[in-house]
């Protein structure tokens, strides 16, 4: 999900592992020096908030809709605003964390995220809530790379390996834990609690960081090397694209409203491409786009994440509005999906050296497609055990191996010194895929404000998921047959350390 899903264990965000070894404060302690785990605990506490907030609103959606009179399009913007801004600014956030003081960047991101959470908790209109979600996402884009950079600079040797494994575990549990946590908070208090809970955590983490994390010397001439124009063009282009997709629901595919938004999105994205060729330090160096394995794997990552996050978004509405599950029960009903993803990912890690990433992805796509087809056949009088659970099982069994294998396939032609940037690009694909997936499936589903609309909409949307997963076989076939020698089997975060 990210969704920060199991793939998020791949590698540190942009540019971190290639710099971490020679950060000034990393050199202050010899490799054998053990450092207290306090800094890791603080960074993980912040990252848990970021990861949970991708999916924590899913279960709260019906309650929010009742209070704030949401339309179908507002539903998807509550998810999309967060993942679009976190994904769109992630590469810039990684660059900022490399060029400036990591602690200051982390605290800036944390403050923005916490303030966004507080505003979201008090929101009394859909627009305020969506804008607050966007602020949370922008904060996450600064916070996450800086947190990873602090972890890499603080720990070394075996401690660093343990820290990265812990980081990966937090990422893996993200989606399902968010849905469950959202269900518990919404049931015990109300939907506003899913946002307010971040405020005391954010304040406590900030206080801890001020005491425990030292300032690092600022790198010179950093300001001139930031491609802010590229990041702004990318984010505004993506927001406009999602708006164009969403407006097909209310205005139709050929309405002037939709066509103007689509045209503007095309102009902004073209501007982004032109900008990247012209600036001195582009967000993504042009040569990166020529690495076929990375581009193909990132495309598959975006598609798979879009399918999974979209499926969770639709299913959480279906379980509550059609099956009548409470918010807490809905959270619990997602646990089998998380379990199947986790177990199949672990099995895939063992099988990877023998089978290869390309075959694992292809098999995973076929199994996940079967899961989407099962979910497309649920009707207005369903049972969770006989109709929904088998679909969740197949979806999870297909998705788990893909997240492991995509991480490895992406790195097969990437030099170790480029691994930070490459993983950052893949994480960006993950976030943007989530936003576009939710927007596209909402457009396909149509009216999600009534039980009848959700039932017929889910049928069409899950069919679209199945077709989309089959289409991902095309970029999968473009992946190289070999896996990288420098990546330990089953671990995406081995390169570059």
UniProtKB/TrEMBL annotation:
List the Pfam families: MFS_1
Show the InterPro entries listed in the entry. Answer: MFS, MFS_dom, MFS_trans_sf
Q: Where is the composition biased (Basic and acidic residues)?
A: 15-31
Q: Where is the composition biased (Low complexity)?
A: 1-10
The cellular location(s) given in this protein's UniProt record come to:
Cell membrane
Chain residue ranges for the region called Disordered: 1-31
Q: Alphabetically list the UniProt keywords.
A: Cell membrane, Membrane, Transmembrane, Transmembrane helix, Transport
Q: Which Gene3D superfamilies match?
A: MFS general substrate transporter like domains, Multidrug resistance protein D
Q: Where are the transmembrane segments?
A: 39-61, 73-93, 105-131, 137-157, 164-185, 191-213, 225-245, 257-274, 294-319, 325-348, 360-378, 390-411, 432-454, 460-479
Tell me the membrane topology, using the record's own terms. Answer: Multi-pass membrane protein
The Major facilitator superfamily (MFS) profile domain covers 39-483
Instruction: Please state what the protein is called.
Output: MFS transporter
């Amino acid at each position: 999900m990210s969704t920060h899903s199991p793939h998020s264990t791949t590698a540190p965000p942009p540019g971190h592992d290639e710099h971490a070894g020679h950060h000034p404060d990393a050199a202050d302690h010899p490799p054998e020096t053990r450092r207290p785990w306090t800094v890791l605990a603080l960074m993980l506490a912040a990252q848990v908030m970021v990861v949970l907030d991708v999916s924590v609103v899913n279960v709260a959606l019906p309650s929010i809709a009742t209070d704030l009179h949401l339309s179908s399009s507002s539903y998807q913007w509550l998810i999309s605003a967060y993942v679009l801004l976190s994904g769109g600014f992630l590469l810039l956030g990684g660059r900022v964390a490399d060029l400036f003081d990591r602690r200051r960047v982390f605290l800036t991101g944390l403050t923005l995220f916490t303030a966004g959470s507080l505003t979201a908790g008090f929101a009394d209109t859909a627009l305020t809530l969506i804008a607050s979600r966007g602020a949370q996402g922008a904060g996450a884009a600064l916070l996450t790379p800086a947190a990873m950079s602090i972890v890499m600079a603080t720990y070394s040797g075996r401690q660093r390996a343990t820290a990265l494994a812990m980081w990966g575990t937090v990422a893996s549990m993200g989606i399902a834990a968010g849905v469950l946590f959202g269900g518990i908070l919404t049931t015990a208090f109300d939907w506003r609690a899913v946002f307010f809970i971040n405020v005391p955590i954010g304040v406590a983490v900030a206080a801890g960081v001020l005491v425990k994390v030292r300032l690092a010397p600022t790198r010179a001439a950093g300001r001139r090397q930031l491609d802010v124009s590229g990041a702004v063009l990318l984010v505004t282009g993506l927001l406009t694209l999602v708006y164009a997709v969403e407006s097909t629901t209310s205005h139709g595919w050929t309405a002037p409203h939709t066509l103007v938004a689509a045209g503007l999105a095309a102009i902004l994205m073209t501007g982004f491409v032109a900008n990247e060729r012209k600036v001195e330090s582009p967000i993504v160096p042009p040569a990166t786009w020529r690495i076929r394995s990375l581009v193909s794997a990132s495309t598959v990552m975006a598609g798979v994440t879009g399918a999974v996050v979209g499926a969770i978004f639709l299913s959480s509405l279906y379980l509550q509005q059609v099956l009548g599950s409470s918010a807490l029960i809905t959270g619990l009903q997602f646990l089998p999906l998380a379990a199947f993803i986790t177990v199949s990912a672990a099995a895939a890690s063992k099988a990877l050296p023998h089978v290869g990433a390309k075959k694992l992805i292809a098999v995973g796509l076929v199994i996940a497609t079967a899961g989407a087809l099962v979910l497309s056949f649920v009707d207005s009088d369903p049972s969770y055990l006989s109709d929904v659970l088998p679909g969740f099982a197949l979806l999870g069994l297909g998705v788990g191996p893909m997240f492991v294998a995509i991480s490895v396939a992406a790195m097969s032609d990437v030099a170790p010194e480029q691994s930070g940037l490459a993983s950052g690009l893949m994480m960006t694909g993950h976030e943007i895929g989530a936003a576009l997936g939710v927007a596209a499936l909402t457009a396909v589903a149509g009216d999600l404000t009534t039980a009848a609309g959700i039932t017929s909409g889910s049928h069409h949307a899950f069919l679209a998921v199945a077709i989309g997963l089959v289409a991902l076989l095309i970029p999968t076939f473009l992946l190289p047959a070999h896996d990288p020698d420098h990546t330990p089997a089953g671990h995406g975060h081995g390169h570059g350390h």
